[in-house]
Amino acid sequence: xxxxxxxxxxxxxxxxxIQGLSGFGFGLTAMAVWAWALEPRLAAVLAVTGALAGQLxxxxxxxxxxxxxxxxxxxxxxxxxxxxxxWLLPRLDVPLFRALLGALLVTWCPLMLLxxxxxxxxxxxxxxxxxAGIAGGVMGGLGGFTGAxxxxxxxxxxxxxxxxxxxxxxxxxxxxxxxxxxxxANGFVTREMLPSLALVLPAMLLPALVGMRVYIGISExxxxxxxxxxxxxxxxxxxxxxxxxxTSR
Length: 249
Hints:
By secondary structure, the chain is mainly α.
């Protein structure tokens, strides 16, 4: 098997488990693996496809609430941010973007983990929700990273485990659906990508189901710690993938 195909399968399997467990993170996790071997536009299409498949699977297998009033500012912001991400995708300095995102996650998440109690933001409310949605929309257009910033924001606001998962899963499902449709409309998905797309879906299916089972059995405190550790690990992986490219220029 071609080395790039092995990388696709490994990245999809690892990302499927992470998304099944946390409700987000397919794009970040998969990109950290795929960045070593895949062209950025192909990696973005694969990430959006895998993340969307994971959200559809979760919608069928994991019970979650739906609070339209809480979700609305996230989705409204996401729809505003998505066009910018789509415009930037073919123009962006991808290694620089990954390095900046990785630095943000690696700096902020450990501070939250080390704090005796997670800080909660009482102000900002729906405006902050909308801004987090905008960031998620921009990052979704760049490669399916819809959940990272909204998840961080929900954690800072002190949402409980189930409320946070409901917001993130519903937000991700909405934004990834729109993102994938926009990728198709803009011609980002090509015939040459079909064999790679056909690998992603079966590779992520079983790991995603395993991650969902693990989620059901963990406590709220453990869930918060896992989410922050995953965000930190994603940031480290992004830095590992991008910094050597930037320093070699």
